[in-house]
Amino acid sequence: MSYAGSCACSAVEIRIEGEPVAVRQCWCRQCQKLAAGGPTHNGIFFTADIALTGVVASNSRVAASGNELTWSFCPACGTQLYGASSARPEMRAVRLGLLDEHGLEPTVAIWVDEAPAGTVLNPALAQYPAQPPAPGAPR
Ligand SMILES: [Zn+2]
Ligand SMILES: [Zn+2]
To answer: Is residue 70 included in any domain, yes or no?
Structure first.
């Protein structure tokens, strides 16, 4: 299976040859900042399966776990592209908004204890109050 898409301004294009190992919502505070108040929606793919074209910018911070979390985005339009953790460089959390007609549905919601007031969580999703146990992937 393959997936393809682009950022909002089309300067960055992505193609993925492979299936995600997980599809998750993340409600952590950092994701809320990146996602304008809601969760990020992420397909956890192998880094080796992902091909990007265009200029990619990134920033990072050290999480409470001690892992460095990096988030990458299009410097022209600000669209979030993917997240990565220093603990699992072989994986990327690709933001699903990038992908066209992907048909991927989240099955897990993580960091739900940090979801803002008024959040209605899909009861069909497995829920974790914070980071799920391994083999989790980067947020
Ligand atoms: Zn862009
Ligand atoms: Zn998060």
So the answer is: yes
The edge-to-edge listing of strands for the beta sheet with 13-17 is: 2-6, 13-17, 50-53
State in Å: Cα 101 to ligand 2 middle.
Answer: 23
In CATH, what number is assigned to the domain containing residue 10? 2.170.150.70
Q: What are the residues whose beta carbon lies below 5 Å from ligand 1 (ion)?
A: 7, 9, 11, 74, 76-77
CA of 101 from ligand 1 middle (Å) equals 18
- pLDDT value, residue 45: 97
Domain around 32? 2-127
- Per-residue pLDDT at 108 exceeds 80: yes
Residue 80 forms part of a structural domain: yes
Do the domain assignments include residue 23? yes
User: Stretch 88-116: mean pLDDT, rounded?
Assistant: 96
Are residues 36 and 79 in contact, defined by beta-carbon separation less than 8 angstroms? no
Q: Which ligand is nearest to the Cα of residue 14, counting in written order?
A: 1
**pLDDT score for 132:** 84
Which ligand lies nearest the alpha carbon of 7? Answer: 1
The answer to whether the pTM exceeds 0.85 is: yes
Looking at all shown ligands, the one closest to residue 6's CA atom is 1
Number of domains observed in the structure of the chain: 1
**Is residue 125 predicted with pLDDT exceeding 90?**
yes
Residue 100 has pLDDT above 80, yes or no: yes
